[in-house]
Structure formats: structure tokens, C-alpha cells
Write a structure and sequence with these properties.
InterPro entries: Homeodomain-like_sf, HTH-type_TetR-like_transc_reg, HTH_TetR, Tet_transcr_reg_TetR-rel_C_sf, TetR_C_16
Oligomer: single chain
CATH class of the largest domain: Mainly Alpha
Domain HTH tetR-type: 22-82
DNA-binding region: 45-64
Order of helices and strands: HHHHHHHHHH
Strand content: under 5%
Radius of gyration: 22 Å
CATH architecture of the largest domain: Orthogonal Bundle
Number of helices: 10
Keywords: DNA-binding
Low-confidence stretches: 1-20
Largest sheet: none
Number of domains: 2
CATH topology of the largest domain: Tetracycline Repressor, domain 2
Helix content: 55-70%
Protein name: AcrR family transcriptional regulator
């Protein structure tokens, strides 16, 4: 006799969602990539991703503090908006342009951080669904939050971001000289007044 009650057969798991395992994080990320790709950033939900991965939503929150953090991990982006936005928005308002400029140029100077961003940008140029997903993430998870904190119209934040990203493309993809060779400090000094003007301008646009 085994001493085990007949009502508890061996080798049988209770029904329900999978518990955490060594590969749970990978399963969640795979489900997140599929969900973000199909529904975009805005319409994807933590519950939906958990359902796709076959895990409890609480387990998703165990690995990722927010949907933004999960997107960053799923797309292998180099930075999390939850970490970056306070760094850009904290401090004197008149220095926000320099903080933003220095962050973008410093972050993209490292190849391991720059390549995932450029890879997504290249994909977005030929894939409408990917373009929409990136647009939603950049707009709602990054630019809108910075604009609201600084109390500036979204269009001004978008213009500042577009100018800086254009510089990154010319510097590292097109390799336009002498832009590609000058130091980060030289670029920060050159670009900061223009970026700050975007952030300081009169509020003739709606706060969208």
C-alpha cells in the first residue's frame, strides 16, 4: 500500500494557469511580442498578454512593473521610460533642453544601445503595423508624459524629439561628416539652444 488516498492520484496537476518557472519570463515576452505586434501598444493589455502566455496576470507584474517595461524588454530597447522621464523632467526648466539632448546623444553613442533602436526604425519604414506600434509607444509612453510634466504642447516635444533622432540617423546611419565625428559635448553645445527653444516656446498649440 502506498498510504496515499485514492482521491489524490499521483502525477496529476491541478487545473489552472502555469506557475512561474525558469522560462516563465521568456514565455511572457514571447506572448508580449505577439500581442504588441497584433494589437499595437495602446490596445495590448497585461491581462491579454498573461492569457496569451498562460500565466496569471500577477506573475506578469512580478517580472515587469508596467506595460511600458514589458514593451521595452520585448522589443529589446536600451532604456525604460519609467527610468528616463524623471531624469529629463527633474531640475530647472531652463536646462531641460540640455538634459534631453545629452541623454539622447549619450545613449545612442553606445552601439549596443543604438542598434536595437535603429533596427526598429528600419523595420517601421517598411512595416505599417510595426510603425503604428512604435508610434503609439513613443507618443503615449514617452513624449506625452514628458510634455505633460513640462506643461508644454505635445507638438513641441515631438519636434524636439524628431530633430534629435534626425541627428542620430545622420550621425550613425548616413555618417554625414563632420557631424559623424564631432564629440558629444560639441553636439550638446550646438543643439541645446534649439531644443530648449522648442521646450520654451509660446503655447500657441493645444496641449494634445
Amino acid at each position: 500500500m502506498s498510504g496515499r488516498p485514492e482521491s489524490e492520484p499521483t502525477g496529476r496537476r491541478r487545473p489552472g494557469r502555469r506557475p512561474g518557472s525558469a522560462d516563465t519570463r521568456g514565455q511572457i515576452l514571447a506572448a508580449a511580442r505577439e500581442t504588441f505586434s497584433e494589437k499595437g501598444f495602446d490596445k495590448a493589455t497585461v491581462r491579454g498578454i498573461a492569457r496569451q502566455a498562460g500565466v496569471d496576470p500577477a506573475l506578469v507584474h512580478h517580472y515587469f512593473a508596467s506595460k511600458e517595461g514589458m514593451f521595452v524588454a520585448a522589443m529589446e530597447l536600451p532604456v525604460n521610460p519609467d527610468d528616463v522621464i524623471p531624469m529629463i523632467t527633474s531640475g530647472p526648466r531652463e536646462e531641460a533642453g540640455e538634459r534631453l539632448t545629452r541623454f539622447v546623444l549619450t545613449m545612442t553613442s553606445a552601439e549596443e544601445a543604438r542598434q536595437p533602436v535603429l533596427a526598429l526604425a528600419r523595420t517601421a519604414m517598411t512595416n505599417d503595423r510595426m510603425a503604428a506600434m512604435i508610434r503609439e509607444f513613443v507618443t503615449h509612453a514617452v513624449l506625452s508624459r514628458v510634455a505633460e510634466t513640462l506643461e508644454i504642447p505635445l507638438i513641441r516635444m515631438e519636434a524636439a524629439f524628431a530633430q534629435l533622432f534626425g541627428v542620430v540617423l545622420m550621425r550613425y546611419v548616413v555618417k554625414l561628416e563632420p557631424l559623424a565625428s564631432v564629440s558629444i559635448e560639441e553636439l550638446v553645445e550646438l543643439l541645446t539652444p534649439t531644443i530648449q527653444r522648442y521646450l520654451d516656446g509660446s503655447r500657441q498649440f493645444p496641449l494634445m
